[in-house]
Amino acid sequence: MGTMTHLVWRQLIKEKARTFTTILAMAVAATLTVATLIGINSARHSMYQDNIQNTGGLQFVLSKVNQETALAIQKKADISESVRYQRQGQISFADQVPNQPDSPLLMLPKPALQRLIQPILLEGRLPQNEQEVMLAQDLISDVYAVGKTVAAQRNGQRVVLKIVGSYRGYAGLMASDGAVTTGHFDGTKNYAVAAAFGNYGNFYAKLKKLTAQYHVGSDQQRVNELALKRAGESRDVKVRAMFVLLVIVVLSVIGLVSLALIYTSINLSVQAQTQRYGLLRSIGATPRQIRQSVCLQALTLALPAILLGLLAGIGGLSLAFHELNRIFKASGNTFQLLLTISWWPILVSGFFMLLVTLLAARRPAKRAAQVSPIAAVRAQSASRKVSQRMLRQGMLGRFLPTPIAKLAYKHYRRLGWSKVTMMTTLALSLMIFIGFTSFFRGMLTFSDETISRQADVTITKTQSLASANFSFNPRRLPGVKRGTVTGTTQVGLKNAPQAFHDRLNVIVVSDQTFGTVFKDRPTIITGSRLVTNSKTGKRQQQWDTPKDFAGTLELANEQSSQKTLTQPMKVVTKTAAEMTDWLVSDQSGLVLSASRFRQISQ
């Protein structure tokens, strides 16, 4: 241990309170850095995992390769997961769609079916033998529906296959116009490999190297681009540049706060040790050695601060993710935040904190090196340069009521860069605090009542509700898994309860839906949204109608030409998130059966 290192260590042990305070300030800065970088990385990985499920965890498909190439690709060291399948024929749908190209008949072994088809299963089930087939959703029609048969050419022979299901052709890695069956491999041609690299970092460079090695063209490749974009792996340079820019901007803001916090702490420590630095100069220490002493002291304190920041940042993120995942699960949302701890956020955080610490220590170290032995003996610090502007009273000083206030303001004007540091620290700390708390408060108040189950497709038709066919079942249409026919109108309310308007939306459903889903009870479906209070600036949940209302409403029949009639009706209220068995529309309102609605509108 060198002389300067020994002196630094003794000084840190001697001033335990100041040492602890400095470490705490550095730990706060390290926590912000660690939490931000690991949080961004975890969010990217969580979105990637959510999207990669549509392709069974596999990232790409290489098709039209021979058996030898397929086996070689599967054995590559950087391939972590893979399945193999084969094109064994085709199916013609020209009788239904003129000039329609033949659809490929793909044979997937059962492991491949589970990985590639099960996540995008739309209707029916997976094929269990060679006589069964699944079609892409665009191929399903009245003629080729689930339960019917289709003729196909398989290995040069005509076969008749039973349609047992359909899959979403545009959601995974399979052909959007394909037909899928199961069975055994036959021959050495027309193979395809669906695979994933051990990690998605630098994905496209690895894929380019792999395809170049086995001479696979671009028309033979299919990639889950959505999942890779979520992970930050995009072919578009602009997308990747935007992500890097985001990280730089966030780190810049955190860096300014960290710089101010650490600088203030080190500067106070240097000012308290003015006599010590002067005495070191008197026994032969050079200004360079003094500067090195201050920087070494700062770096020594930064190491435990970084460790504390890692623990606090990871622990805080873990608690936040756990709470958010609980809310997502309660609301029926399948998305989950996964805490991902990898090497690059930790290394970047450590390097970033060391760099900020050195920058923060630079000016205090220079000031410590300027302390003269005479000033140290007198217990004086280096004289501060005071400009004429600092000596002026200032506009604010003229309006201060007491001499003590004027004296304090005069001292404040003479602080120079110290006051700038203090104001910057307070302003940036307040900005980060408001930003983080607003984000998490918004996420935590986004409760399960704000999430409703929306339909993928909504078709609107303008016609009289009296002539609407509410008994029509949309599931009869090809490719439709669930569906509901509803009609909407408005009715007046007589003696409307508090928090209700004088008019109310009415959602009309079939008698069967009203009985099975709503138990033959008139039900108000209410939704909510997050709005910002103009007075307080806080976000709050605003309901379309009171979510706890249960009582009697009087509906006004405004269609009567003679007089306005009233129909008392006992109702209950449910939130949109509670109605998991029904596709909720965007509107809130009173749900009635078609027959009940006809009664009140006659």
Automatic annotation (TrEMBL):
Any GO molecular function: transmembrane transporter activity
Main location: membrane
InterPro entries in the cross-refs: ABC3_permease_C (IPR003838), Macrolide_Exporter_MacB (IPR050250)
Subcellular location: Cell membrane
Topological category with respect to the lipid bilayer: Multi-pass membrane protein
Keyword annotations of the record: Cell membrane, Lipoprotein, Membrane, Transmembrane, Transmembrane helix
Transmembrane segments: 20-40, 242-266, 298-321, 341-361, 420-440
Sequence ranges assigned to domain ABC3 transporter permease C-terminal in this UniProt record: 249-373
GO cellular component, one term: plasma membrane
Family: Belongs to the ABC-4 integral membrane protein family.
Name of the protein this chain belongs to: Lipoprotein release ABC-type transport system, permease component
Lineage: Bacteria, Bacillati, Bacillota, Bacilli, Lactobacillales
